[in-house]
Amino acid sequence: MIVEAYAEEETELKVSVRTSLRASSIDGSLSTVFSNITGGVLLSSFLIDLGASPFEIGMVSSLPMLANLLQPLGALLSNRSYSRHDYGIWTFLSARLLWLVLLVGIILRGTNTDLSKELVYLTLTLVATSNILAAMGSASWMSWLAALVPKKLRGRYYSVRSIVSNVTGLLCLPIASFIVANWQGGSITGYGLVLSVGILAGVVSLTCQHFMIDINPQKYQAEQKQEQENNQISLFNNLIAPFQDRNLICFLIYVAFWGFAVNLSTPFFNLYMLENLGVDITWVTLLTSLSSGANMLMLLVWGRLSDRFGNRPLLIFVGIAIAFTPLFWLLTGLSQVQEQLWLYLIIFHLFLGGTWAAIDLGGNNIQIGIAPMEHHATFFAIVSAIAGVSSALGTSLGGALAQYAHYEGIFGVFFLSAILRLVAIIPLLFVHEN
Fold first, then answer.
1. Residue among 257, 34, 4, 20 at smallest CA distance from 165
2. In this predicted model, what pLDDT tens digit does every residue of 361-381 receive, in sequence order?
3. Mean pLDDT confidence for 124-143
4. How many CB atoms lie within 10 A of CB 344?
5. Burial level of 339, CB count in 10 A (0-12/13-18/19+)?
6. What is the dihedral of CA 345, 348, 350, 353, to 10 degrees?
């Protein structure tokens, strides 16, 4: 009887975990709609229509990264809560509902076009505030998933989850861009329409979390490590623990250099196409969707390879390939390339999407693998904070150079980014994956 009861309980647990992972995938899909509309090329195009400068466009990319500096604080607060679910609702729901303020601003601008500059500042403020709230919940969310996903299925599950999200993005971006570009009331009003859909999708996605097994951080940490008598000492140890391990330090150095090098140029690829190459917003989003499609197709391949060979070799091999991608833009000035520009843009975005699938998947899996079990949320927060600060510095520097440099100066930014990406891979050679 005891054996049968135990077997039945184990079966119920497996079913609950399976339901949780499915709910998480749906949540990721709907969240993709929200993130694609409140960020990326659609938001950049919206700001360009309002007359924003390249530096302000760069700020849209750097502010979310800087917000990640607060992730360690969010990790400490979430670890002192009694529910991953409740903590996530409070942070993410607030972050998404804030965008309703921009809807009001777009409506008011419809009656007064002189409010364009104020609307740019409002958008930057909302980007900062919304991402600060989201950053407070990100480490808790990652820790929640890390506790639910079985170790042997990480590569495959995260690849499938990413595929679901990418399919959503593949469908969402072209439709949203078509509405924005062809709305009779103008592109700014059209963006307001798709923004309302994005906010709705973001709120609905949070309801999926009700079907996931909740985790009590207090109980979970106690199972991984005995609670220390002095709570203040415990909090201090949680923060410094990752810096006492040489392996974790090497990984953090890699994260910092890679984030800086990549974001020195990447946020300005779309801006370069829109402003310098004169590509229409609809075509830019179609190219982005092609990239997402390639990302989706390659995720399963990279997921199986990461389970078989490990994530570190994947990050090194693909990282070298990605390091050279900014140099593609150096070719756009050649007359031979300009004659075949669309073909080059399509090939480039397909390659970019396929390779970034390995970076996203491998980077996520390797930090889950090397993170101390008792310090999961704290380590994830520290990684995100370091990546956020370094990425924001890269984006800010790139934005300043893009605004004050001549046309050829942008190419210098792309070339510098390629060199720094190769240098950033070096610390990864000294990381040992568990």
1. 34
2. 888 888 877 776 656 667 777
3. 87
4. 17
5. exposed
6. -120
Q: For 183-230, where are the alpha helices, taking DSSP H only?
A: 187-207, 217-224
- Residues 205-228 pLDDT 10s: 988 888 888 887 766 555 555 444
* Residue 43, number of CB atoms within 10 A of its CB: 20
Residues 72, 382: contact at Cβ < 8 Å? yes
- Nearest partner of 222 among 21, 82, 89, 91, judged by Cα: 82
Task: Mention every residue, 6+ apart, whose C-beta is less than 8 A from residue 297.
Answer: 354
Nearest CA among 297, 426, 318, 314 for reference residue 365: 314
Residues sharing a CB contact under 8 Å with residue 384, sequence separation 6 or more, in sequence order: 68, 71, 135, 138, 139
Residue 155 and residue 304 in contact, taking contact as beta carbons nearer than 8 Å: yes
Q: What is the mean pLDDT of the chain?
A: 79
Encode pLDDT of 25-57 as tens digits.
888 889 989 998 998 788 888 888 888 877 787
Asked if 65 and 395 count as a contact pair (C-beta separation under 8 A), the reply is yes
Q: Which residue has the tokens 């995720």?
A: 299
Pick from 267, 284, 281: nearest CA to 413: 267
Q: What are the structure tokens assigned to 258, written together?
A: 């890679």
Q: Is the pTM of this model over 0.90?
A: no
**What crossing angle do the helices spanning 2-37 and 187-207 adopt, rounded to 10°?**
170
With CA atoms as reference, report the closest residue to 393 among 243, 254, 242, 262: 262
- Is CATH 1.20.1250.20 what the domain over 2-220+233-430 is classified as, yes or no? yes
Contact between 314 and 85 under an 8 Å Cβ cutoff? The reply is no
Helix, strand, coil percentages for the chain (3-state, nearest 5): 90, 0, 10
Phi and psi at 280, nearest 5°, equal -70, 150
Domain boundaries, the chain: 2-220+233-430
pLDDT in tens, 245-284: 788 888 889 999 999 999 888 877 877 787 777 777 778 8
Question: Which structure tokens are listed for 417?
Answer: 């980014």
In Å, the largest CA–CA distance within the chain is 79
Strand ranges (E), 216-296: none
Got the DSSP string for 345-377?
A: HHHHHHHHHHHHHHHHHHHHHHHHHHS-GGGHH
Phi-psi region of 372 (alpha: psi -120 to 50; beta: other; left: phi over 0): beta
